Amino acid sequence: MNIHEYQAKAILRDFGVPVSLGVAVTDAAVAEAAAANLPGPVYVVKAQIHAGGRGKGTFKEAEAGPAGGVRIARSPQEAAAEAAKMLGKTLVTVQTGAAGKQVNQLYIEDGSAIAKEFYLALLVDRESGEIAFVVSTEGGMSIEEVAHNTPEKIVSFSVDPATGIMPHHGRAIAAALNLSGNAVKQAVDLAEKLFTAFTAKDMALLEINPLILDNTGALKCLDAKIGFDDNALFRHPDIAALRDVSEEDPKETEAAKHDLSYVALDGTIGCMVNGAGLAMATMDIIKLYGAEPANFLDVGGGATTEKVTAAFKIITADPHVQGILVNIFGGIMKCDVIAEGVIAAVKEVGLEVPLVVRLEGTNVELGKAIIAESGLNVIAADDLDDAAQKIVAAVKKA
Q: NCBIfam families annotated for this entry (predicted)?
């Protein structure tokens, strides 16, 4: 689960992490008063969307002006004017895709005099099973670009869970960022506070870009991006309450209600599979035969007819889907349950695209009989390879 920058900074502030003062607003009419309560005289007006690259983004609407989603204002009145230009408009960045995201909230923050910019992140290193720090002197830039063009400027190291965060970790950060004097002590303190926040709140990612050294020599987190482990949210109702469903794909939100593992993709062939590994293999073979999957969807091992019906509805709700492949290997999951769910869904929402069904395993003959006797225009497949070829061919023919 992701949250907005202003929410991330509120959490970090609770752990003593140095961040600028700021106010979140949803109405341009209150923006001037909100900015007036900040020290000033420079203010930063930031679009709050779940996507990076806001500063370099562009608005679809001409009246929003040529500037991106992060703007400098030199008076409360100017901050309000910029807020009025951005609220309700659609911001397109490298991470939103061409559709962009509507800006419904802004964060008006006190400006900072920046002397140097750095990059700092914490994440879970899947290879070592430890929390890792990633730091770079190239703050304010896309870390992907830095990794591609100048990988030697990225330093990373893991924290042994047996010892936890130690002073030498902060000193390693200071050395990587070429800090000296009091800034080294600040780096040690900052590393400890960020690590504590990361572990206490079950974060999956904590990215500070940029981390700055201001003209007074103080380290400050000028931006903050936090993602949480969904599986740990039951331990953090305060974090779960921060979820902004308007920033999420409606199909993924609906899938979560039915305990379905669903991720929307950019292809044209919808997939309904049981088991994450089989779902990945299904997507791979679709690509092998020259098409692209429209989603990852794992109905799980204990799906009911109702759950399968919900899954089918979610797939068909995607306007980009031009064909559907149902691939079930029945172990715990019974093929007849899948068949009944597919039929129920088709009867309810209709079937306007080709549908290929491959069933194997528990109650396979019963499942095939149910589909055959349904009278639906369903293409049967013998195995995964056969199913992938048939759905790709059917979509191209259509």
A: PRK00696.1, sucCoAbeta
List of residues 6+ apart from 327 with CB closer than 8 A: 271, 272, 273, 278, 282, 358, 384, 387
Tell me which fold the domain 20-110 belongs to.
Answer: Dna Ligase; domain 1 (3.30.1490)
Q: Residues 286, 391: contact at Cβ < 8 Å?
A: yes
Q: Is 37 annotated as a binding residue?
A: no
Q: Does domain 250-397 have CATH number 2.60.120.260?
A: no
pTM over 0.90: no
Distance CA 314, CA 280 (A): 18
Q: Where are the domains of the chain?
A: 20-110, 114-240, 250-397
- 39-43, 77-81, 269-273, 329-333, range with the lowest pLDDT: 329-333
Tell me which fold the domain 114-240 belongs to. Answer: D-amino Acid Aminotransferase; Chain A, domain 1 (3.30.470)
Contact at 8 Å (CB) between 154 and 143? yes
- Name the more confident of 339 and 395: 395
Query: What whole-number distance in Å separates Cα of residue 333 and Cα of residue 336?
Result: 9
Beta strands in 182-247 (DSSP E): 203-214, 219-221, 225-228
Q: Is 112 annotated as a binding residue?
A: yes
Which residue's entry shows tokens 């103080």?
Answer: 218
The catalytic site residues sit at 119, 207
Question: What is the residue-averaged pLDDT of the chain?
Answer: 91
